[in-house]
């Protein structure tokens, strides 16, 4: 198997997990965060390796905001363009709880097959 197959698998897997991870990061933060700051937190949490491309984060933040799971506000920046800060909403916290449960169930199901070799 070549490296491109692994990269495609990682990309497909990440596509479904970005929203969950972003909601979790914002839920754990006591302050509003902007996209670059979130990307850096994710990178630090993974020993400096970025799992999600920075360009992937911004559209998902916008989609979560459009779904009222996040609120956002624009703040002028002295060192560049204005920054859009995000904060999780109560609805976002409720969805996060649902998605966490779905993730745990899915992870458990997959682990039963890849870790213990369950067969039919």
Can you give a write-up of this model?
With 120 residues, the chain is mainly alpha-helical. It has helices at residues 3-28, 35-45, 54-66, 90-114; strands spanning 33-34, 70-75, 83-88. The protein has a single domain (3-114), classed as Arc Repressor Mutant, subunit A (Orthogonal Bundle), CATH 1.10.10.10. The chain contains four helices and three strands, in the order H-E-H-H-E-E-H. The chain has a three-stranded antiparallel β-sheet with strand order 1-3-2. Strand 2 and strand 3 (83-88) form a beta hairpin. Helix 1 (3-28) packs antiparallel against helix 4 (90-114).
What is the helix content? Answer: 55-70%
CATH topology: Arc Repressor Mutant, subunit A
Strand line-up in the sheet with most strands: 1-3-2
Give the domain tally.
Answer: 1
Morphology: globular
What are the key terms here?
120 residues; mainly alpha; Arc Repressor Mutant, subunit A; globular
Q: Can you give me a brief rundown of this structure?
A:
It contains four helices and three strands; from the N terminus they run αβααββα.
Secondary-structure blueprint:
Elements: H1 3-28, E1 33-34, H2 35-45, H3 54-66, E2 70-75, E3 83-88, H4 90-114
Antiparallel strand pairs: 1-3, 2-3
